[in-house]
Amino acid sequence: MPIFKAVITAGGTSSRFGKNKLFEKIKNKPVIQYSADTFTDFGLEIVITANETFIDEMKNLFADYKNVKVVLGGKTRQESVFNGL
């Protein structure tokens, strides 16, 4: 049986928003966690590419997830996807 994985590119800084919108909460849950949970509900392994400014916070958020790995994103989306792959 093949192993399917998802790459979530979260390497931006949310500069126009003013703070990292991925950590903003909806119903007491960070937005990025909704995305990750959707993929884990389907049994997928996930790689999240994070900006170096937020990588520790992202790793802490997903520390209890066995199927989520957080890696450093790139300067562009293309680089972040490459790093995730």
Describe the SSE topology:
Elements: E1 5-10, E2 25-26, E3 29-30, H1 31-41, E4 45-50, H2 55-61, E5 68-72, H3 77-84
Parallel strand pairs: 1-4, 4-5
Antiparallel strand pairs: 2-3
Helix content: 25-40%
Instruction: Let me know the number of strands.
Output: 5
| Backbone shape | globular
SSE order, one letter for each helix or strand: EEEHEHEH
Distinct helical segment count: 3
Distance between the termini: 20 Å
Described by its quaternary structure, the protein is single chain
Give the strand content.
15-25%
Low-confidence stretches: none
- The computed structural class is alpha/beta
State Rg: 13 Å
Major sheet attributes: 3 strands, parallel
Major sheet: order of its strands?
1-4-5
Describe the structure.
The protein is α/β, with parallel strands linked by helices and 85 residues long. Helix content is 31%, strand content 25%. It contains three helices and five strands; from the N terminus they run βββαβαβα.
Which key features would you list for this structure?
single chain, 85 residues, alpha/beta, 3-stranded parallel sheet, two-stranded antiparallel ribbon, 25% strand
